[in-house]
Amino acid sequence: MSTVSTPSDPAARLSAAREALRNELKKCIVGQEDTAELLLLALLCRGHALLLGVPGVGKTLMSATLAKALHLEFHRVQFTPDLMPGDITGTEVLEEDPATGRYRRLVMQGPLFANVLLADEINRTPPKTQAALLQAMQEGEVTIGRETHKLPSPFLVLATQNPIEMEGTYPLPEAQLDRFFFCIRVEYPNLEDELSIALNAPGNALSTVNAVLDAEALHALQKTVQAVPIATDVGRYAVSLVSATRPQSGSVAGVTEFIECGASPRASQALVLAGKARALLNGRAHVDFADIRALAPAVLRHRLVLNFRARAEKTDADAIIARLLAHVPQEKA
Length: 333
Ligand SMILES: Nc1ncnc2c1ncn2[C@@H]1O[C@H](COP(=O)(O)OP(=O)(O)OP(=O)(O)O)[C@@H](O)[C@H]1O
Fold this sequence. Notes:
This protein is of the alpha/beta class. The protein folds into 2 domains: 10-214, Rossmann fold (3-Layer(aba) Sandwich), CATH 3.40.50.300; 228-327, Magnesium chelatase subunit I, C-Terminal domain (Helicase, Ruva Protein, domain 3, Orthogonal Bundle). It is built from 13 helices and 11 strands. The radius of gyration is 21 Å and the shape is globular. The termini are far apart. The structure holds adenosine-5'-triphosphate (ATP). Residues 29-32, 53, 55-61, 120, 189, 197, 202-203 line the site of adenosine-5'-triphosphate. Adenosine-5'-triphosphate is lined by residues 29-32, 53, 55-61, 120, 189, 197, 202-203.
C-alpha cells in the first residue's frame, strides 16, 4: 500500500488523503468528482448511500475503484425478484465430518460480509430481502442460524436505483429510505468526458489503482469528523432547512404545499455530520453555511414524500430543495 504523508493537523491530513484518493480514482474514472466526494463523505460519516442513475454511468466502476483505493473489500450483488434474505446474509449448512461420520454446522457468510457492498437495483427485490439488508445496515450485524455475526467495519452500502424504470419494482418504504445517509444522483457524463471514456477505456486500469488509506486510517478519520465543532448559527440553519420541509411548518412558499411528509430529525443529524466531514475535507476545522447548503440536496432529496400536487405540477424534490435554499434565511448569531 502506498501511504499518504500524514500531517499532524487532522484537517490537513484529510485534505492530503483526498488529493491522493482523487489521483487514484482518476486512473479509472472520468469526471464524476462530485459523486466520488459524496461517497467519501458518506464513508467518513459511517453512512450509506442510495445512488440514482441509469445503467452504464459508472456506478459499479466507481464503487470498485473507491474500495480498492481505500484498501477495502468490495462485493456486488444484483438484486433480483427471486433473491432471498439468506442469499445476502448467509446460511448455515450441515457438513459431514469424514473422520467421525458426524454432522457439524458450518456458517457460509453471504456477500453482505464486505466493507463496500454494491446492492445493484435494490428496488428489484421483494421487501423481505430489502429489509434484511436495511437491518444489517442499521445494526452492523446479521443473524445466521442461531448465531449473530458482526459485519466488517467500515461497512458502506451503496444501493442503486434506476430513476426511469419503475415497472416491476418494489419501492423502498419511506422509513427505510430515511436510513440512507445520502441520495446521490449519478448523471450522464458531458461530451468531453464521454469521448475520453469511449476512446481511452480507463475502466481497464482498475489493477493500477493503489490503496492510499486503509480501514484503520478511516476509523481514525471517522472519529475526527465527529469531533469537529459547529457554531450554533450554522447548526440552527441546518435544522431550519430540515424543519421547513414539514407541511405543519407551512412557512416557505413553493415548498410545503408540495410535501406530504417532510424530513425527520435524522436528516438534521445527517446534515450537521456531513457538514463537519465536508469542512474537514476542505481543510477547515469549522463548518460553514456553505457546507450545509452544498449537502442539503443529498441529505434531503430521498426524505421528502411529495404529494399529488407535486406530481400533477411535475415538480421534484430537487426543485423543492432549491426553493428551500433560496428562502430559508442564514441568520448569523
Ligand atoms: N465515468 C466513467 N469513467 C470511466 N469509465 C466509465 C465511466 N462511466 C462509464 N464507464 C464505462 O462504462 C462501463 C459501465 O459502467 P458501470 O458498469 O460501472 O455502470 P453502472 O452504472 O454500474 O451500470 P450497470 O448497473 O449496468 O453495471 C464501465 O465498465 C466503464 O468502462
